[in-house]
Amino acid sequence: MVTIIDGKPKYRHPEKRNRPDTPVLRKPDWIRVKAPTSRGFAETQEIVNSKGLVTVCQEAGCPNIGECWTKKHATMMILGEVCTRACSFCNVSTGKPSPVDPSEPERVAEAVREMGLEHVVITSVDRDDLEDGGAMHFVSVIEEIRKASPGTTIEILTPDFLRKDGWENRVIDARPDVFNHNLETVPRLYLSIRPGARYYHSIRLLERVKLRDPNQFTKSGLMVGLGETKEEVMQVMDDMRSAGIDFLTIGQYLQPTRKHAAVERFVHPEEFAAYEEIARAKGFLMVSASPLTRSSYHAGEDFQKLRAARLAANG
């Protein structure tokens, strides 16, 4: 994507500009969604815009934005809209981020209160430029939401805090209701799909949450359709369970542009159903697996199911 500013082109993904185009597969019927037109969508958009907020729904081009925003479910993206990494699957802008806005936590909390959210998901760009990776900003957002909307349960979807010397512990100690960090893909594909991350570091981050606060729910997600095998996905499930992860999401990877990683294939809904059955057999408390599943899709309803599953498991 190119925007002209002061007569000069500004590229959304400058690091991808010179890459060769990748092929684009035609989407099957089960992956198609309608354009959003509802009144609820417009109301959510107005609240987001009036508070000067960024949502991952918009930045990542989520296919579920129409359904979620109609229900006034928006996933807030904090720490700006420019990421310091260049994952080949992601549509968020890459570049040098602006300084952290200290007023953002309060504005996010006001939006949560105005929307009347029972459950909110907070995510962010990667901020490798910050000493703490943005950890204390996450803490501030959690604290402000709890002041403005005490009854709202809070789910965070964090970066990996790679090489941030334990700052993630401050986020864990803020006690969000759900601590989510996505593994995204199988280890073999990390170099091409998620080159700035390290698979086993991400596993250890989620394991550290459980060791530090056993009552905190942990969650992680995978994309499929990137060339992974069923056996590799099952191995990731085992790694997740070894780290004590409670909730697994699996969704279809969708290619944002021809400069991004190509979709190798569209996984059939029956395969997603099989993945869900396997994951439940491996001991996950909650599994959401479908072509349109995303980390925050139906997050509020799924959190209630997750909590009920733990109560049932504990007798």
UniProtKB/TrEMBL annotation:
It comes from the Bacteria. [4Fe-4S] cluster 1 binds at residues 57, 62, 68, 296. It catalyses: [[Fe-S] cluster scaffold protein carrying a second [4Fe-4S](2+) cluster] + N(6)-octanoyl-L-lysyl-[protein] + 2 oxidized [2Fe-2S]-[ferredoxin] + 2 S-adenosyl-L-methionine + 4 H(+) = [[Fe-S] cluster scaffold protein] + N(6)-[(R)-dihydrolipoyl]-L-lysyl-[protein] + 4 Fe(3+) + 2 hydrogen sulfide + 2 5'-deoxyadenosine + 2 L-methionine + 2 reduced [2Fe-2S]-[ferredoxin]. Residues 1-24 are annotated as: Disordered. GO terms for biological process: protein lipoylation. InterPro entries: Aldolase_TIM (IPR013785), Elp3/MiaA/NifB-like_rSAM (IPR006638), Lipoyl_synth (IPR003698), rSAM (IPR007197), rSAM_sf (IPR058240). The keyword Metal-binding applies. Pathway: Protein modification; protein lipoylation via endogenous pathway; protein N(6)-(lipoyl)lysine from octanoyl-[acyl-carrier-protein]: step 2/2. This is Lipoyl synthase. It comes from Henriciella mobilis.
